[in-house]
Amino acid sequence: MKTLLKLEDLAEFLFGVFFFGLLSYEWWWFPALLLFPDVSMIGYLINPKIGAWLYNLLHHKALAIICIIFGYALGKNEMSLAGAILLSHSAMDRMFGYGLKHESGFKYTHLGIIGKN
Questions:
Q1: Per-residue tens of pLDDT for the chain, all 117 residues
Q2: What's the Cα-to-Cα distance from 62 to each of 1, 29, 38, 58, 70, rounded to whole Å?
Q3: Do the Cβ atoms of 18 and 68 come closer than 8 Å?
Q4: Best label site of 61, 71, 81, 109, fewest CB within 10 Å?
Q5: Cα 24–chain centre separation
Q6: 9 within 8 A of 94, measured Cβ to Cβ
Q7: What pTM was estimated for this model as a whole?
């Protein structure tokens, strides 16, 4: 099952790359922005509840898909770009075992505890 989920995340990552390619941005923007959603970890400086909420918001694949669809429908390339980056980043994180966060702390995710043996 773990392999199947990683393959699904790989497909989502590649779709984000594919969709980015349809936009009118230079390719260097993709790697430059790929880690930007991790700025959401700043919420943990306030407390774990706000940290988890902010992190989960910017790592939620539904938000990424909504940005892609509405950006495309409205002709807003910036919104589509945000969606492609959010989707690719979130899928990449899931492939590496970083899931959505629980309020109990950063290392507690829906995929299990980060760093668990």
A1: 789 999 999 999 999 999 999 999 999 999 999 999 999 999 999 999 999 999 999 999 999 999 999 999 999 999 999 999 999 999 999 999 898 999 988 888 888 888 765
A2: 22, 22, 17, 10, 12
A3: no
A4: 61
A5: 21
A6: yes
A7: 0.91
